[in-house]
Amino acid sequence: MKMPKHTDEDKARFRDLVPEGPGVEVKPMFGSLGAFVNGNMFAGLFSPNIGVKLDPESLEELRGIEGSGPFGPAERPMGGYLSLPATFTDEQATAWVERAREYVATLPPKVKKPKPATKA
């Protein structure tokens, strides 16, 4: 699977859309960026597309907006996530990213797996 490229502008816009708050961090993920709260991803960048993880009702609401669609590789889109329409203004996109953060913040924190012991 070939990973699409994103521009530095795409990455900067993504970072600008992610709200600051307790437990929120943006970090590299699979050659792109992901936004996490308490260790769980709530938004991601895939090529120029921004995807958000939402509760089922909000997913249906977003799915009803023209221009939204699957998020991730066409061969294997990410379940529970949808891409925001490319026509969204930064204000519209920020509102949906914030909804995603609010939803994912209600999920149990991701517990880091312990690193396996190295053999001596």
Labels describing this entry:
globular, six-stranded antiparallel β-sheet, 3 helices, 120 residues, alpha+beta
How are helices and strands ordered from N to C? Answer: HEEEEHEEH
Backbone structural class = alpha+beta
Residue ranges: pLDDT <50 for 5 or more in a row?
Answer: none
Helix content: 25-40%
Helix count from the secondary structure assignment: 3
Rg, rounded, reads 15 Å
Specify the biggest β-sheet: 6 strands, antiparallel
Indicate the mean pLDDT: 90
The proportion of residues in beta strands is 15-25%
Anisotropy-based shape: globular
Strand line-up across the major sheet: 1-2-3-4-6-5
**How far apart lie the N and C ends?**
37 Å
Q: What is the tally of beta strands?
A: 6
Describe the structure.
The protein is of the alpha+beta class and 120 residues long. The chain has 3 helices and 6 strands, in the order αββββαββα. It has helices at 8-17, 56-63, 90-104; strands at residues 24-29, 32-37, 40-46, 49-53, 69-70, 81-83. It has a 6-stranded antiparallel β-sheet.
Helix and strand topology:
Blueprint: H1 8-17, E1 24-29, E2 32-37, E3 40-46, E4 49-53, H2 56-63, E5 69-70, E6 81-83, H3 90-104
Antiparallel strand pairs: 1-2, 2-3, 3-4, 4-6, 5-6
Summarize the structure.
The protein has three helices and six strands, in the order H-E-E-E-E-H-E-E-H. The protein is of the alpha+beta class. A six-stranded antiparallel beta sheet has the order 1-2-3-4-6-5.
